[in-house]
Amino acid sequence: MASTVRIVPITLADQEEFLAAALRSRKLHHPWVSPPLGPTGFRTLTERSQGPLNLGYVVRHAATDELVGFINISNIVRGSFHSAYLGYYAFAGHERQGLMRAALGLAVRMAFTELKLHRLEANIQPGNAASIALVRSCGFSKEGYSPRYLKIRGRWRDHERWAILAR
User: Fold this and answer.
1) Cα–Cα nearest to 73, from 101, 94, 50
2) How confident is residue 160, by pLDDT bands cut at 50, 70 and 90?
3) Would you say residue 161 lies in a domain?
């Protein structure tokens, strides 16, 4: 069965569409994530997403090529750990349609096959029920709770740790 989405490495050519989608999505993203809203932030995100330790992907609808979200695999650690963090967000108008579930499935498969990782971890604020439901539906398991784990929008926020292991 063909996927409804594809994930493609982010490039500077995505800037105009990405920034427009991020601006449209401010209400959806608040208070969970803060995607770049201007050219400087977008360039920083794109440059940081080129590997080898951080990889960023735009999520595109397979039929329309519309930008529907973003995924990053970051802080890739090799050696005896072979682990990374997974971050993601949908853009407004594309949420709750199964598109990010399909995209996360592709990203997890790529992480375990192409990148040869053993573990992916997603850290999610406890109140973000949609994100928790998404990772749970993709096979992630809750491993724990980290108080004041990440600084988001100027405040240290608690997070739940969810992870999936290669089989």
Assistant:
1) 50
2) very high
3) no
Tell me, yes or no, whether 19 lies in a domain.
yes
On whether residue 22 sits in a domain, the answer given is: yes
d(CA 102, CA 59): 10
Mean pLDDT, to the nearest integer, of 12-36? 96
Nearest to 57 by CA among 110, 6, 99, 9: 9
Q: Is residue 90 domain-resident?
A: yes
Could you give the number of structural domains in the chain? 1
Model pLDDT for residues 141-151, shown as the tens digit of each residue: 999 999 999 88
Longest dimension (CA), the chain: 43
* pLDDT tens column, 73-131: 999 999 999 999 999 999 999 999 999 999 999 999 999 999 999 999 999 999 999 99
Instruction: Provide the CATH number for the domain around residue 31.
Output: 3.40.630.30
The two tokens of residue 61 are 């609808």
Domain range enclosing 40: 5-123
